[in-house]
Amino acid sequence: MNEREPLVAVQHVQKRFGANTAVRDVSFEVFGGEVFGLLGPNGAGKTTTIRLLLDIFKPDAGQVTVLGGPMTQKRADRIGYMPEERGLYPDMRVLDCLVYLGTLKGMRRGEARESARRYLARLDLAEHERLKINALSRGMTQKVQVIAAVLHNPDLLIIDEPFANLDPINSELVRQIILELRQQGKAIIMTSHLMTLVESLCDRIALIHQGEVVLAGTVAEVRRKFARNVLRLSGTGVLDTAVGGVTQIVRHTASDWEIFIEADTEPRAVLARLLAEHDDRFLVDRFEIAMPTLNEIFVQVVRKP
Fold first, then answer.
1. Computed from CA positions of residues 69, 71, 76, 82, in that sequence, does the dihedral angle turn out positive or negative?
2. Beta pairing class for 230-237 and 79-82
3. Where are the alpha helices (H) located in 59-93, listed in sequence order?
């Protein structure tokens, strides 16, 4: 159990719009120094949950606590938010827009200008600071939106699909900014459909489906929970199927094998038996449990009737 005070606590929130229940029962906590993945298919209730968290919507039931209490202007100034529907002013010049948005978060103009130029240089946009927003490509606009969200060094960053429209190089630049904020003890809530990036970035996740949290935990815990009873083995020699706990052995290449084991069987015990019974006939180079990807888990949970 985490003894620290969470920077975000969402407790059994519900939100209805007429006859439609957008959020049925959502609870989670987010702590400083972690990236929290808020996942789910389109229409699952993620955006509504974020808007409840930001006090844009009021919950019909449940409670939201942000940065130690209910939302106030001072707390709002400590939050950085990048919505999926981009919030830049298309007719403003890049630098002017960023400075203006920084002042809305309580920054002095000079401070906002210095921070904006530092991030523009970091994201290879310095030479475009005088261009209007509507003259930028989608990828460049995305990077400006990221800068707008982190410009004021927020204690809580909420980013909705931060890697949309970014190539691998720019995705890595944004990823490094997120990791630095985590290292500084900030809390980051991220939504994304790119499960490989979620897997590499997020400490914990919550998967929302039909307005409810259907899966939550650390990435490692979630993957272990859905691990199949399959071992992957690389080595040289010959394996026999007549080993206790083994139901099937499939050879894929000259050195790669998949070993299907009985349910509730300890994988390391199976490996020990394999080695003991094969003695010098098989030399192991690599051994691992076949862990599913977050993408496979996402599809399995969401498609489950």
1. positive
2. unpaired
3. 73-76
- Return the sign of the alpha-carbon dihedral for residues 234, 235, 240, 242: negative
Q: Give the CA angle between residues 117, 123, 124 to the nearest 5°.
A: 85
Least confident of 133-147, 163-177, 267-281: 267-281
Residue 237 near residue 278 (C-beta atoms within 8 A):
yes
CA pair distance 64, 8, nearest whole angstrom: 8
pLDDT digits (tens, 9 = 90+) for 267-304: 777 778 777 766 667 777 887 777 788 988 898 888 87
pLDDT digits (tens, 9 = 90+) for 216-244: 999 999 988 887 777 788 888 777 666 67
pLDDT greater at residue 249 or residue 151:
151
Of the candidates 225, 245, 215, 197, which has an alpha carbon nearest to the alpha carbon of residue 292?
225
Which residue has 């809530």 as its token pair? 189
- Distance separating alpha carbons of residues 142 and 136, to the nearest angstrom: 9
Distances (CA, A) of 65 to 28, 62, 71, 149: 11, 10, 7, 20
How does the average pLDDT of the chain come out, rounded?
A: 89
**Which one-letter amino acid corresponds to residue 82?**
M
Instruction: Calculate the CA 168 to chain-centre distance.
Output: 17
Closest CA to 91 of 131, 149, 139: 131
15: tokens are 């939100």
Locate the DSSP E strands across the chain: 8-17, 20-30, 34-39, 61-66, 79-82, 156-160, 187-191, 204-209, 212-218, 230-237, 246-251, 256-261, 282-289
> pLDDT for 51-101, tens place per residue?
999 999 999 999 999 999 999 999 999 999 998 776 799 999 999 999 999
